[in-house]
């Protein structure tokens, strides 16, 4: 299970359920996307005290969960699309390093270098 800064994907699932319930009631106010996962990812990535590598990894994970273009999601979250591409490669080819990046125990650059032999 992915956990960073005390927030797990389970927490995100609860936020998704709350956002969907809000949308079902017609409370579209602050939600500018049709996909609650995309909205939650963008807001949480920016709000939390995460490194750019951690942010990029969350965006890469989010791009797997939703069908949104990874570059668009990166731009909305305020993270470099190139950095998110590196995170996506680590996610795909070196998944054993993802938790270390998310926890802040390894930088995304180090994970990318370490996993680059698998790309």
Tell me what you see in this structure.
There is one protein chain. It is built from seven helices and two strands. The protein is mostly helical and 119 residues long. The protein has one domain (3-118). Strands 1-2 form a two-stranded antiparallel ribbon. Helix 2 (36-47) packs antiparallel against helix 3 (52-65), helix 3 (52-65) crosses helix 4 (70-77) and helix 3 crosses helix 5 (81-93). The two termini are 24 Å apart.
Strand order of the largest sheet: 1-2
Order of helices and strands: EEHHHHHHH
Structurally, the number of domains stands at 1
Low-confidence residue ranges: 27-33
Quick one: overall form?
globular
As a whole number of angstroms, the C-alpha radius of gyration is 14 Å
Assign a percent range to the helix content.
Answer: 55-70%
Number of helices: 7
**Terminal-residue CA separation:** 24 Å
- Based on DSSP secondary structure assignment, what is the total number of beta strands? 2
List the defining traits of the structure above.
119 residues, 7 helices, mainly alpha, 2 strands, two-stranded antiparallel ribbon
List the helices and strands and how they pair.
Layout: E1 3-4, E2 7-8, H1 9-24, H2 36-47, H3 52-65, H4 70-77, H5 81-93, H6 98-103, H7 108-115
Antiparallel strand pairs: 1-2
Quick structural gist:
The chain is mainly alpha-helical and 119 residues long. It has helices at 9-24, 36-47, 52-65, 70-77, 81-93, 98-103, 108-115, and strands at 3-4, 7-8.
